[in-house]
Every structure is written in C-alpha cells, then in structure tokens.
User: Which sequence fits this backbone?
C-alpha cells in the first residue's frame, strides 16, 4: 500500500530545489555557506601564513597587534599571528563541530522520538520524561558542566553539544510520529500483517525526512553559536587550535586598542549562524506547504 501526501510531494528534490532557489534570502544564506565552506576546505592554500605562526614583524614596536594592512589583511592578534589565516582555519572548527555535533543530535533525537512516538505506553512515557528532564536544564549550563568533566578537544566539544541539543529534535519527532502512527495507512499496514520495521522505514520515516532536514539545517546555526560560546568561556576548543570563539577570548583584552580582533570573528560567527537560519527557514517553507507565506 502506498500513500501520497502533500509533504511527500513537497519533498521531491527537483521541486524543492527550484522553490528554494527562487527565494532571495535563501540564496544569500547559501552563498555565505558556500564562501565559508570553500574558505575552510581550501584554507591551507588560501591562508598566507600558518595559523600558529608568530610573526617577527606581527607586532608594533610597543608590542601591540598590527592593524589591517597590505601584509596582514585583517591585522594580527596579541601574539603576532595573522588574523585572516586564523579566521580561515577557525571556520574549519566551526563547520566540523556544527556538522558532527548536529548530526549526532539529530540521530539521537530521531531515534528517541520515533521510538517513543510509535511504541508509546511505558516506553514512550519513560523516554519523554527523560527528554523533559533534559530540557529542564539550561543547555549552556549543562554544556559547561559536561565540558568541564572531560578534557576539551574538538571531538569532545562536538559530543558535548550533541548531548545537550538532541532534546528539541526528540520532542518534535515524537509529536509527528505519534500523529503518523494513528493514520489510516499505518492501520491498514498493520491489518495486512506488516511488521514494525516495514512500517517505520517504509511509511513513517519517509514522512519525517523533510522535518529532519529543516531541523538539521537550523540546528547547525545553534551549534555554531554554542561552540563559539563554549570556546569564548574557555571550556571549548583549546588554543592553539583556532576557533572563532577562542580568537575572541584570547584577544578580548585588546578590545579598545584593536577592536578588529573581536569584531571580525564575531561578525563571522553571526554571518554563518544567520546563513543557516535563512536556509533553514526557507527549507521549512519549501518542504512544509502548511507553513508557507514568508518570502
């Protein structure tokens, strides 16, 4: 038995891509993501210096950071390192953590949400009460506690962020799965003797794909901001590995004398988060016709 719904029709790749490319804000977001991703991938060839190199001429005679100029396009930091090079390599950190942490959070949230929504009963009650318990803790505070327990590194930070970001996905997936489990086509499949695996993988999960794509895109924005916050607080990615958050943390004492050391990485964080928000919002309108209306 097959079922064709508006959500499936909207999720057809060719139609969804065409509608997405018709949205100007989505195109701006995609352009920003492409630029940042390209900069991160090709950083070893684009960056004029290694991110950890401390230049002999990277500081003024007074020992202050160099302002933007011909040699150092975005200036240098308090140790004489080229800021442009560190921004490029820092983009790698943000994107890797954004994709890995958000992917893990989606996997955990989807698994818990689908299990609780389909089986319900005591299984659903236990899983959702645990989800509610996790949601009761402030995400930043919980992330700081977890990061303090483990030795901070890129992969540990990604794991910590995933462990605090899955709850929203689980709640949304649970609600949608519970509604789908009551639909007529699912009841008909059960009557025909279909097993749990067939119902989940052939009928329920395909309906969840558009929503998971949207939450995955929007979640990268949240992950980038949380990683930058943890790094700024000193419990995220540790120097000398460049991260946009720890670049601000290291150079905040020069905020008045060398404001570019704070404004430039801060603008990069906001631009990347905004880009994923714009694309995620457009994907939501494209993949879910019931929420259209914001162009």
Assistant:
């Amino acid at each position: 038995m097959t079922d064709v719904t508006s959500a499936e029709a909207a999720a057809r790749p060719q139609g969804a891509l065409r509608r997405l490319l018709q949205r100007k804000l989505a195109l701006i977001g995609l352009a920003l993501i492409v630029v940042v991703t390209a900069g991160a991938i090709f950083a070893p060839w684009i960056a004029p210096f290694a991110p950890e190199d401390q230049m002999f001429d990277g500081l003024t005679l007074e020992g202050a950071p160099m302002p933007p100029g011909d040699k150092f396009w975005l200036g240098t930091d308090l140790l004489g390192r080229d800021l442009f090079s560190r921004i490029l390599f820092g983009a790698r950190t943000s994107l890797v953590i954004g994709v890995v942490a958000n992917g893990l959070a989606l996997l955990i949230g989807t698994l818990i949400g689908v299990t609780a929504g389909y089986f319900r009963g005591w299984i659903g009650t236990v899983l959702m009460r645990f989800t509610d318990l996790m949601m009761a803790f402030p995400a930043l505070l919980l992330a700081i506690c977890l990061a303090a327990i483990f030795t901070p590194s890129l992969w540990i930070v990604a794991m910590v962020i995933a462990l605090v970001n899955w709850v929203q996905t689980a709640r949304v997936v649970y609600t949608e799965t519970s509604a789908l489990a009551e639909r007529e086509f699912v009841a008909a499949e059960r009557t025909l003797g279909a097993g749990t695996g067939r119902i989940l993988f052939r009928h329920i999960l395909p309906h969840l794909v558009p929503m998971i794509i949207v939450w995955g895109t929007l979640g990268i924005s949240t992950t980038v901001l949380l990683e930058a916050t943890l790094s700024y607080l000193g419990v995220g990615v540790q120097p000398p590995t460049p991260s946009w958050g720890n670049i601000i943390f290291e150079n905040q004492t020069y905020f008045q004398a060398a404001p570019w050391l704070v404004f430039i990485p801060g603008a990069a964080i906001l631009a990347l988060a905004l880009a994923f928000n714009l694309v995620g919002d457009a994907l939501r309108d494209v993949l879910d016709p019931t929420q259209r209306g914001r162009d």
